[in-house]
Amino acid sequence: MQNAPTSAEDIFKHQSRSFSWAASFFEPADRRDVARLYAFCRYVDDLADATANGNQEKLRNVSDTLKGLEQAIEGTPEADFLKLSLSRGLPREPSLELLDALVADCGPRWIADPEELLRFAYGVAGTVGLLMCGLLGAKDPRAAAFAVNLGIALQLTNIARDVAEDADRGRFYLPATWVSPETVRKAMAGDASSIVDTDEAVLKTLSLSRRFYKSAREGLWFLPPRNRRVVFLASVLYEAIGSKLIRKGSGAWKKRTVVSQFTKLALTTATVPRYAYWSRSCWSRPSPPIHDDSLHAALSQFSVQMNGRANDFNRSDQEKARR
Question: Which of 19, 51, 73, 225 has the highest local Cβ count within 10 Å?
């Protein structure tokens, strides 16, 4: 039996094969710190999945540690995350929102509607996008909304991929207004009409993810080119999971879909002209992209927060222009 990976970079390599492949093209320092962030996120996510009802107490302890209410124990993931946050100037609020979302996700769960789906995706993944901004050189506050969109897009892909695995644990993330948990259960048992209904919900989820991938790629304008190409490749590799799921046809969600190493190599090569197209059509523009705020309509508190930060930035620009 192989020992479980223990270093941050080993955890990253073994647990996130698509993203870690793309991240191998980062500069060494950025790659190391991205791996450290991933290791912390994997650690707290595993706490939510530790038992049938998750480990809410430990998640709350981690949250208290990040708030400074408890002493961080040297050598723990939370202690390393605090060091990373301090050295790279990461904001605290997204990590606390991540922990709150994971506490809420402990145990059986079902999602009522698309709006709740997006709030869930923001909590467990959009928050990680915000933390990544500080690691990848996205200093403009207007980048944050686009970073959130990439996190949401990746999470929607995960949800479409993991329907059966999640259902086995009593978690139903496809919105009930699209397909009920009972219908998903019947589909897993082989009921033909229920499989079709679940297929349609999976397709809707992937269609929604494409809107967020598109916006996220527009937001790569804010990244320095050395990191922009890596994040673009990561988004392409991850979106390919959904594309493969569609190609496999009805009921493909019953078994986890993965992208092979050969396909990753092929996609990496094929990404070159796509990257060049995006560079010419979007990232070479002198002005940054304007975020589609309708994407955050379900995230009212977050959207107000982000709009406020962007407006402050714009007012600062205007004041400088008047001087």
Answer: 19
Look at 312 and 255; give whichever has higher pLDDT: 255
Asked if residue 293 has pLDDT above 90, the reply is yes
**Structural domains in the chain?**
108-222+279-309 (1.10.600.10)
Can you say whether the dihedral through the CA atoms of 160, 162, 167, 169 is positive or negative? negative
If DSSP states are collapsed to H, E and C, what string results for the chain? CCCCCCCHHHHHHHHCHHHHHHHCCCCHHHHHHHHHHHHHHHHHHHHHCCCCCCCHHHHHHHHHHHHCCCCCCCCCHHHHHHHHHHHHCCCCHHHHHHHHHHHHCCCCEECCCHHHHHHHHHHHHHHHHHHHHHHHCCCCCCHHHHHHHHHHHHHHHHHHHCHHHHHHCCEECCCCCCCCHHHHHHHHCCCHHHHHHHHHHHHHHHHHHHHHHHHHHHHHHHCCHHHHHHHHHHHHHHHHHHHHHHHHCCCHHHCCCCCCHHHHHHHHHHHHHHHHHHHHHHHCCCCCCCCCHHHHCCCHHHHHHHHHHHHHHHHHHHHHHHC
Identify the band that residue 23 occupies on the pLDDT scale cut at 50, 70 and 90.
confident
Sequence-distant (≥ 6) Cβ neighbours of residue 281 within 8 angstroms: none
Closest alpha carbon to 40 in 21, 66, 17: 66
Hey, CA dihedral for 130, 133, 134, 136, is it positive or negative? positive
C-alpha to C-alpha distance for 196 and 190, rounded to whole angstroms: 11
CB 224 within 8 A of CB 294: no
CA dihedral 217, 41, 48, 58 (to 10 degrees): -150
Torsion of CA 161, 165, 169, 175, to 10 degrees: 30
